[in-house]
Amino acid sequence: MKKIFKILKILLTVLFTSYSIFVILFLFFSDKEKRYDFASHLQGDYLSQSMFEILKLQNPQNDEIYFEQSVPYNKRGFYKEGFQLLNKAVELKPKMHLGYRGYMKLRFLRDFKGALKDFNRLDSLTPNFVDSPWGEDIDFLMGEAYFGLEKYDKAITHFGKSIENQGEGWVDIQAFVYTGLSEYKLGNFDEAKIQFEKALSQSKYTVEAHLGLAKIYLETGDLTKGKLHLDKAEKYFSYKRNDPYNEYLNEVYESDIVTLRSSGT
Amino acid sequence: MISFLFALSITAWGYYQATHRIGELEANDRIDDNDFELCNEDKVAEYYGMNTDYIGGKKAIKNRILSELQFLDFKESGLLTYRFVVNCKGEIGRFRLKATNKDLQKTEVNSKNILEIEKELRALKNWNPAINKSGYTYDSYYVLNFKIENSKIVDIF
């Protein structure tokens, strides 16, 4: 009996020790790429963050780890922590991360000046190359930042560059919408209408352009056209531009249609 | 015995790490409304991907409370970032604030201003809770930023 207990004790010791060694090997010594993917997949979990901490200790110069670790912090409103990590990624590989940081400053913080600073620095590091921070044209994003700063002339210039660089058929339709909105803000109603019409020529579902036109027509007394575009905005409302993380600067709501409708009756 | 305790410690650590996430807000009787309850403490989603929102969007929040908060003065420009829970019934609570300056470093906000902002937040009643494709509603976290410039709140998003 005593012998059985002794064997059992040895077996359990081997089992528990093997288990512990396996966990430690995985956490500290398994393939770095696999551990990075594991941590990325569990985005936001403490386990993911601990894995990133281990990876940073072992690879302090790997920018991707800092970048990936920053993501859940920024998504969840912990900007101090998120941007500390993102700043480190930028420090290690500016060309790779400046665009994303600028995008985050623009969309998550509405820090328009900070975003422009990053976009301009990125632009200077990549001469003769049109950058696409986080998949969006850099001039589109710069236009959006200037729009946020209410510098509408500069916004128009950058949206124009975006349209020129990407081509009318390929550019983000919202470049026309933002240009129209900027022209409207400057009091250039005719040019604004041209831009909104351009957006609609690319897609009749552009709710923001219908609303932009409705507003101008109602303000200039053309109630028939104003109502027509309000009806279309209502009809195509489900196609409006939105984002699960943030509200766009030119985001439209059903309340905008209601407000305009009541102003035109 | 040592190998058992070591394995147990690793398992407990792993379990804790795998079941906790950045930004979890635990109830705090000292500061939270006593009548605010979550439908499921163990399953609180994030706002993104689950369509948690205020009816009319952040624009409606801004339209409703920005003007009400213009009498408040702040010492430093930056962001006040509120994270709170929208429960499965569309009620809100567990407000937690992170205040940062323009360099995103932690900054202090006087308690009177915090009370005034939270009073306005608590008055917001038209919430759409997180919802799945089957129409089942969930508790979820929400993030709302107040941008401070030249001593005043200039934007809510």
From TrEMBL, chain A:
Residues making up the signal peptide according to the UniProt record: none
Record-linked InterPro entries: TPR-like_helical_dom_sf, TPR_rpt, Ycf3
Keywords linked to the UniProt accession: Membrane, Repeat, TPR repeat, Transmembrane, Transmembrane helix
Keyword Membrane: yes
Gene3D superfamilies with a match to the protein in the record: Tetratricopeptide repeat domain
Coiled-coil parts of chain: none
Transmembrane segments: 7-29
TPR repeat start-end pairs: 63-96, 136-169, 173-206
PANTHER family documented for this protein: TETRATRICOPEPTIDE REPEAT PROTEIN 6, UDP-N-ACETYLGLUCOSAMINE--PEPTIDE N-ACETYLGLUCOSAMINYLTRANSFERASE SPINDLY-RELATED
Protein name: TPR repeat-containing protein
From TrEMBL, chain B:
Protein name: TonB protein C-terminal
